[in-house]
Design a protein that fits this description.
The structure is a single chain. By secondary structure, this protein is mainly alpha-helical. It has helices at residues 10-23, 27-42, 48-60, 65-108, 112-140, 146-151, 153-169, 174-188, 192-195, 214-230, 238-249, 255-267, 275-305, 308-314, 318-346, 350-365, 371-388. Helix 1 crosses helix 4 (65-108), helix 2 (27-42) crosses helix 4 and helix 7 runs antiparallel to helix 8 (174-188). It is globular and about 60 Å long.
Length: 389
């Protein structure tokens, strides 16, 4: 059912996420930043409050962060049909791309050029997500000044703690986010029942296109369903889980093939988790790609759409708002920590550091430049540096 406050059509929203799906580079940190910039600041289709609610719910539920946030934003004014169409529009373009790359990979026996492209793209991505993280931080917590530190010191504390823990452990903990939300709720707006001394509470927590074996498809379905249903955090968080199953447990891919699969995810637009489609294709052709993608994204869709109506309804409560604010501060801190992790893996020498720095300066001073153009230029530079020079 369409809410009266909607200032955009479902078609406009779906087309936006279709474009984000084929041109949104940079992984989950950058993608959630694009959504805020475009839907909240520029078009004003989504309110700041609705965006923060969606970001909090997306981080609380397991699965890919950017896809869950997109699904929630589709649900805000257009309910289940909006969530469904937005989810499909967002994931489909990058799924098609990774399947095509999977075909090329099987045809040519590897993608040596991809590492050269990723050298430049990976460095540019650091610049893009750094700017996105900065904007998210200043919008959700406050500007980097003394007044903001004094006023929102608790949120800044959550932000710093989550960022440091994420950078050190290289993983994101949902317990940390929930803890930050609960603590800030107790400080800012404790519920009435808690003020009265209630002690109990409930925490809701060839080309090989058709080469496959049915038993393998079943294993793929089970494994990737677990990946979608039990891995919390951004697209980065799923990589260690995938490595443990795909390489160590089932031996579907070797180390080099797995690294190529991660590279595919980083040089294609859309959600990083779409690498599951590439992995599925290498293991069991097109059916494997479809099963892997569906098994990964279906839990994320259900775990976003089912609680969304209730989450939105209770989110206007002052205590719940404080809870969401606490979670948001920790979430954004964790995203900044994720930037540090990616940077440590992508910035390997002076040229890659320069690419990242130039990207940041371009985004600051060239306001109208498209991120997709930056990615393309970085890819060409990477190819030149690694294959020509």
């Amino acid at each position: 059912m369409l809410e009266a406050s909607s200032s955009y059509t479902l078609r406009q929203l779906v087309l936006y996420f279709l474009k984000l799906g084929y041109a949104g580079f940079g992984g989950p940190v950058a993608l959630v930043g694009y959504m805020h910039r475009d839907l909240v600041e520029e078009h004003k289709w989504i309110s700041e409050e609705e965006y923060k609610e969606g970001l909090a719910l997306a981080q609380l539920a397991p699965g890919p962060l950017a896809a869950q946030l997109g699904i929630y934003l589709g649900f805000v004014h257009y309910r289940v049909i909006g969530a469904t169409l937005v989810g499909l529009a967002f994931v489909l373009p990058s799924f098609i791309m990774v399947v095509l790359l999977g075909i090329a990979y099987k045809l040519f026996g590897g993608l040596p050029w991809m590492q050269a492209v990723f050298y430049g793209v990976g460095a540019a991505v650091i610049g893009i997500i750094s700017i996105s993280s900065y904007k998210l931080t200043t919008k959700s917590i406050g500007k980097f000044n003394l007044q903001s530190l004094k006023t929102n010191w608790v949120l800044w504390l959550f932000f710093i703690i989550a960022g440091v823990i994420t950078a050190i452990t290289q993983s994101e903990s949902v317990l940390l986010f929930v803890g930050a939300g609960l603590l800030y709720m107790l400080i800012k707006a404790p519920p009435k029942w808690m003020q009265k001394g209630a002690a109990n509470f409930i925490l809701l927590t060839g080309i090989g296109f058709w080469e496959y074996e049915t038993s393998t498809l079943i294993k793929i379905a089970i494994f990737f369903t677990k990946a979608g249903a039990f891995v919390f955090g951004s697209g980065l968080a799923i990589v260690p889980f995938l490595h443990g199953g795909v390489v160590s447990e089932y031996h579907w891919l070797n180390e080099k093939q797995f690294l190529d699969a991660v590279a595919v995810a980083m040089i294609t637009p859309g959600p990083v988790v779409i690498t599951v489609g590439f992995i599925g294709y290498l293991v069991a052709g097109f059916p494997g790609a479809c099963v892997a993608a569906l098994a990964t994204f279906l839990p994320c869709y259900l775990l976003t759409v089912i609680p969304a109506p209730y989450f939105k309804r209770i989110a206007k409560n002052k205590s719940i708002k404080a809870f969401v604010d606490g979670i948001t501060a920790a979430v954004i801190g964790a995203l900044v920590g994720a930037v540090v992790i990616i940077a440590s893996r992508s910035i390997t020498d002076i040229p890659s550091a320069l690419i990242a720095l130039v990207t940041i300066l371009a985004l600051i001073y060239l306001k109208k430049i498209q991120e997709s153009y930056i990615i393309l230029i970085a890819a060409v530079i990477g190819l030149i540096l690694k294959t020509v020079l």
